[in-house]
Amino acid sequence: MEQISILEGRQKQIFEKKKGVPQADIACDTSSLSGSVSQRACVFCGSRVVLYPVADAIHLVHGPIGCAAYTWDIRGAVSSGPELHRLSFSTDLQEMDVIYGGEKKLYHSLIELIEQYKPKAAFIYSTCIVGLIGDDIDAVCKKVAKETGIPVLPVHSEGFKGTKKDGYKAACHALMKLIGTGSTEEISKYSINILGEFNLAGEAWIIRKYYEKMGIEVVATLTGDGRIDAVRRAHGATLNVVQCSGSMTWLAKEMEEKYGIPYIRVSYFGIEDMSKSLYDVAKYFPDRPDIMEAAKQVVSEEVKTLYPSLQKFKKALTGKKAAIYVGGAFKTFSLIKALRSIGMSVVLAGSQTGDKNDYARLKEMCDEGTVIVDDSNPVELSKFILEKEADLLIGGVKERPIAFKLGIGFCDHNHERKIPLAGFEGMYNFALEVYQSVMSPVWQFAPRKGGTL
C-alpha cells in the first residue's frame, strides 16, 4: 500500500503507536479537509441525532426539502409509545421564500402541524439557507408557543456553523429550555437521568431494567424513547449518567451548574464497562448498601449466563485482528475491551468526534503498532486495513462497502443497526455478529485483497 499516500493536510490526524518513539498529540476538533471525502457531519445532522428520538414532539426542518432527508429511517430510534419522531416535516423553502423570507411559511406550517398531531412540543431546526437569509425563527417560535400553549423550541443548527459536535450543543441548548419546567414531586432520592442513550434498537429499555432491578428510579432518558414531560422534570434526578460523552457532556455540565446535579461518564458496551456502569451508580448512594448488593446480583446472574457462550466464540476468534472506526471515541474504548474478551486484537482505532483526551487514552489502551485516526476517509481506512491485515471492520453503514470490497468481515456498531449491542445481552449479540462475519465461509469466494487496491 506504499503507493497510497496520506493527504498533506491529514498527517497530524494519524498516529501509529511505536515503542520508544515520542510523537505529538493527534490533531482533532477541526473541520474536515476539503477533498478528503471524510465522514464528519454538519451541525444540523448533530442536532437531529440528539433530539429526534423524543417521540411525542413534532420535528420540523425549516429549510429546503433536501435537509429533511435526514429522517428516522436513516438513524432509527424505537419508541414504546408515540411515534411522531418517525415523521419528518419540512417547510420546503423555494426560490421565492429565499428572496422574501420564510417566516410566514414556518408559522403556518407550525400551526397546521400542531392542530393535526397535538404534540407535547415542537422542535424547529434552522438549516444553512435560513441562516443566510436571516429568518427570525425565535420570534416565530415564541408567537406559536403563546398561541398554542406548548413549547416551541428553535434549534440553531445551521450546517455551516461548524461540525456535528456543534449540533450536539445546539440540541442541548434546546433541551435546557425544557428542563426545569416540570414538577419534581414524588421523584426518589435514589434516581438518575440517562444521558446520551438514543435507544437505536431498544438499548434504553435494557439499561433501564438493570437500574430498576437495583432500586434506582430512572427519571428521564435523554433522548432515547424520550418524552417531553420526562425531560421537563429531569432536574429532579440526583445523578446524571452520561453514556455518549460527545453529545451530552455539555448538557450534564449545564445541569450541574444550574441545578447542582453531578454527573459520571459510563459505557454500556461489553461486560467490563457494563458492570462498571452499574457499580459506579451504586457507589453514589453509599447510604443504601442494598443497591450495591443488587448491582452485584445483576452482574453475577448476567455474566453467569453469558460467559460460556463467549468462550465458544473466543476459541474461534483468538488471534484475529479488528479495525474500529465509529462516531464517538468513548465507544472505541469499550469496543477494544470487548474484542479482547473474545480473543481479538485491535490494529486500527478511530473516531469522528474524539477530543485530545480521548485520543490520549486510546494511545494508552492500544497495543504497539496500532494506528489511531481522527476523521478518517475511505482511502485511509483501506490502506491501514490492508497494511495491518485486519480480519474485521467495525463501523457504520458508510464503512460497510469498504470491508466487503477488501474481503473482510463487518460489524455495524453505529446508527443503522437493528439489533441491540448494549448491556449483557448486547455483548452476546455483538460477539455472535463478529463470529458469524469473521468466520463466514463466504470469504473463500471473496478472498481478502493483498497489498494493492
UniProtKB/TrEMBL annotation:
Pathway(s) per entry: Cofactor biosynthesis; Fe-Mo cofactor biosynthesis
Swiss-Prot/TrEMBL keywords = Nitrogen fixation, Oxidoreductase
**GO MF, one example:** nitrogenase activity
Q: What CDD domains does the annotation carry?
A: Nitrogenase_NifE_I (cd01968)
Q: Cite the Gene3D superfamilies for this sequence.
A: Nitrogenase MoFe cofactor biosynthesis protein NifE, C-terminal, Nitrogenase molybdenum iron protein domain
Q: Where is the Nitrogenase/oxidoreductase component domain?
A: 42-438
Q: Which family does it belong to?
A: Belongs to the NifD/NifK/NifE/NifN family.
Please give the function described in this protein's UniProt entry.
This protein may play a role in the biosynthesis of the prosthetic group of nitrogenase (FeMo cofactor).
Q: What is this protein called?
A: Nitrogenase iron-molybdenum cofactor biosynthesis protein NifE
Q: Which organism is it from?
A: Pelodictyon phaeoclathratiforme (strain DSM 5477 / BU-1)
